[in-house]
Every structure is written in structure tokens, then in C-alpha cells.
Amino acid sequence: MSAEPAGDPRRTFDLRAATLLVVANMIGTGVFTTLGLQAQGVQDGAALLLLWLLGGLVAACGALVYAELAAALPRSGGEYVYLTRSFGPAVGLIAGWISTTVGFAAPVALAAMAFGQYAATVVPVAPTPTAAVAVVVVAGFHAFDVGLGTRFQVVMTLLKVAAIVLFCAVGLLLPAAPAALSPVPDAGTPGAVFSPAFALSLVYVSYAYSGWNAATYVAEEVQQPQRLVPRALLLGTGLVTLLYLLLNWVFLRSVPLDALAGTVEVGALAARWLFGELGGRLISAMLALLLLSTISAMLLAGPRVFAAMAEDRPALGLFGARNRRGAPTRAVLLSLALALTLILSGTFGAVLAFAGFTLMLSSLLTVLGAMRLRRTEPALPRPFRVPWYPWPPLLYLALTAATLAVVAWSSPAPVLAGVCVLGAWWWWLTRRAGAPADTGADQRRTRPP
Predict the structure, then answer these.
(1) Which CA distances in Å does 263 have to 1, 38, 41, 378, 448?
(2) pLDDT confidence of 442, banded at 50, 70, 90?
(3) What is the Cα–Cα distance from 79 to 308, expressed in whole angstroms?
(4) Could you tell me the residue range of the domain that residue 256 belongs to?
(5) Which end of the chain has fewer surrounding CB within 10 Å, N or C?
(6) CA pair distance 195, 187, nearest whole angstrom
(7) Stated pTM of the model
(8) Is residue 4, in this structure, part of any structural domain at all?
(9) pLDDT at 429
(10) What is the mean pLDDT of residues 35-46?
(11) Domain-embedded: residue 179
């Protein structure tokens, strides 16, 4: 591979491509699988739709904070860059390793295995080999030509959005199912909204909205990043919120409550009620297409974190180089190897549970760090500033902390493991001789040009 300097990425992302990267990272299987679990405890259509609206509001609050950080520090790497600047290199390095390993590799493996399972319902293929082949093929687009990878990502995400819009349009035109939940508020709606089940359901919704920060991982490859990255974060989050509300409205009116409550495969169930048995195959094909876009988005964004880390630390420099076409080939291949290991070993489930807690904690610390930078670096140029400050970050912090508390209560084992691993990592990084590297160069690089 003929390598270019690590810090010379090509600006191949315009506003459309950066926005669609956010959309592709956000829309996975969560919106197609969690409504039935929510309907077990919240049996009111208006309250269920309000859940998804609140989830979009929380994601928008997080996107506003990340937009300020991205405009002030227009460098690829996401939390690695922001936490390094706000809390120091040890915290940033931990966040970077978490993002690179479990933060992106585990979701890639999960999406690929889900792709294999959905593809097997449409054509006679073995799920695990199909998942492995899908990851290898998609990684090929991103490992050798950054322009080709960006175009592939745009096309696949446009197909994803078009498929969802078509499904919603047809679903809203067809008659509602008997005994389906109504989206119109009634006398029972306030009681459902203030119930413990409503609060617990916000956890499911928050998982479905994760990925709203995707454009920050490729900020250096976005044209005019200080202006377009904030727009991409907010436009992508707004578009996904609208699509989620439409999808859940269709699900609610298409499936009777007794069939909906407790069901995991809500998308396939709604398709069968709308179109018969053929609908199950149609929705499986659509989900397979959707998951290819998700795999692509993760394999595009994840390696940029490792490439950013490699630029700052000579020991990792091997993975920071880009080839003549601007692609971080070695970083992509590392992400591919991690994902294939999880797919073929089938052990990624526990890793994903650990990742869920640690990634939410990273985003919470990043928002706290943005507020800290307001105090410690008031002179830092901020082309975009959070409106109505400090209410958006405070709302995000409150609801994310509540979600972490629910996760810790319901799944204490991965949370305890996460705390122990992070604590040990922090102790080692802050006490070993000569680590981490000085961040003066990093701070000069991340100041706006």
C-alpha cells in the first residue's frame, strides 16, 4: 500500500453524505424490534408515540452539544478528540479504544449476523458465512478508495430511507387493524406517561436513537466541517425522528394490541398484517438492505477513531496512514478483523452488553466535557454554540444518567465489568511512566484553522 501522511484525509463528504452517515448509523434493528416490548407495559398509543418523540428530543440535545464541539474542534475521532481536550489524554485514549474495539466492531458483527438471518429467510443461504461475506465485501468499499466508500454509503442509505418511506406510505393508506392502539390521546394517556413502565421503555428508545453523533468521527473529511458537521448532526437526527414516528404510527395501527405486546419482530409482524405472508419476506428483504447500510456506516466511521489515535501516538502510526485514494486501509482492515472474530466466535453478545454501558458513559462524559470547556477555554472559537444553553446539555445528562441507572439495575454484571475495566485502565494509564503522550500538538491541531 502506498501511504499518504496520516493527517491528509480527502474531504469527500458534502452535507448530504454526512447527513446520510448519521441516518445510517441511527437506523438499525432497534426501531423494528422494541415497540412490542414497550407495549407490554405502556398500552396507550399516544404515550408510545410520545416515547419516540422524547427519544428524538434527547438525541437532538446531544447532537446540539456535539455540534458545538465539532465546530470548535474540527478533527475526526469523535469522543477521543473531545475527551482528550476536556479531561486529558488518559480519558480520551480510553474512549478511543472503547470506540475502536467494542464500540464499532461489536455493532458491525451484530448487524452482519442479523443480515445473515434475514437473508436466509429470503434466499436459501447459511447465516454465518453470509454475515462474514457481507462484512468483507462492504469493508472492501471503504478500505481502498474513500470516494468509492462514500458513494456506496450514500446509495445504500438513500435506498434505506426510500424503503422506509414507501412502507410507511402504504401502511398509512391501508385500513387500520381491529383493536389496534389509537395515536390520539385519551383519559388514560397521562397515567401511562407517568408510569414506571414508561420510564423503563425510554431505555429501549435510547438504544434505537444511538448513532446521532456519527458525523463527528469523519469531521476532517467533511467539506467546511465547522459549518456542515453541525448541520449534518441536526438534520440527520431530525430526519430519523420523523421516520421513527411514522414507522411506529404504522406499527400501532397495523397490529392489534394483543398480538403486538411482547413481540420482538414488530416489523415483520406488521408486514404480515398489512400484506399477508408475502409481507414477511418483503420486510426481511428491506431489513437486510437496511443492515447493509448500517454495516457500511460503522465500517466507515469506526476506523477513523483509530486513525486519529494513530496520528497522536507513534506506536500506533502503522494504522494512521492513508493510501493514495485517501482511505485508512489498515485501520479499516483492523476493524474488519475484529468484527469477523466476533462473528465467527459467536461471543460478541457479552461484549455488546459491556459496550452499551461504556458508550453511554462516554457520551455523558463528552457532554460534561463540553460544559467544562465553556469554563476552562472560554476563548476557544465556537462557530456554532448550543442554543438555550445550558438546558439542552442538562436535559441530556439527566436522561442519560437515568438510563445508565436503569441499565445498572437490570444488568449489573456488564456494568460491574465495565467499571472494573475502566478503573483498571485509568489506573494503568495515569501511573505508567511516560504515558500518555503530551497533547500540546493535539490541541494545536484541533484549533480551528
Answers:
(1) 49, 10, 12, 50, 49
(2) very low
(3) 11
(4) 13-380+389-426
(5) C
(6) 14
(7) 0.86
(8) no
(9) 66
(10) 90
(11) yes
SS3 assignment, position 262: coil
Helix residue ranges, H only, 319-347: 329-345
SS3 of residue 10 by DSSP = coil
Using 50, 70 and 90 to split pLDDT, how confident is the model at 435? very low
CATH number at residue 134: 1.20.1740.10
Residues 298, 157 contacting (CB under 8 angstroms): no
CB 89 within 8 A of CB 439: yes
128 vs 351, higher pLDDT: 128
The secondary structure of 100-166 as a DSSP string is: IIIIHHHHHHHHHHHHHHHHHHHSS--HHHHHHHHHHHHHHHHHH-HHHHHHHHHHHHHHHHHHHHH
Is it the case that residue 205 has pLDDT exceeding 60? yes
249 falls within a domain: yes
What H or E segment, with its residue span, contains residue 2? none
- Tell me, yes or no, whether 263 lies in a domain: yes
Q: Which residues pair with 4 in a beta bridge?
A: 322
Q: What is the DSSP letter of 44?
A: -
The domain tally of the chain equals 1
CB-neighbour burial class of residue 41 (10 A; exposed 0-12, middle 13-18, buried 19+): middle
Q: What is the mean pLDDT of residues 87-107?
A: 83
pLDDT tens by residue, 290-333: 889 989 999 998 888 888 888 887 777 677 677 888 788 888 99
